[in-house]
Amino acid sequence: MDEKEVTEVLDSDKYADEVRLDERESQRYGIHAVPYFIIGNRVAIPGALPVKQMESVSTEVMEAEAKEAVGMQGMSCGPDGCHIG
Question: Of 16, 52, 64, 84, which one's alpha carbon is 20 to 30 angstroms from that of 70?
Answer without folding.
Answer: 52
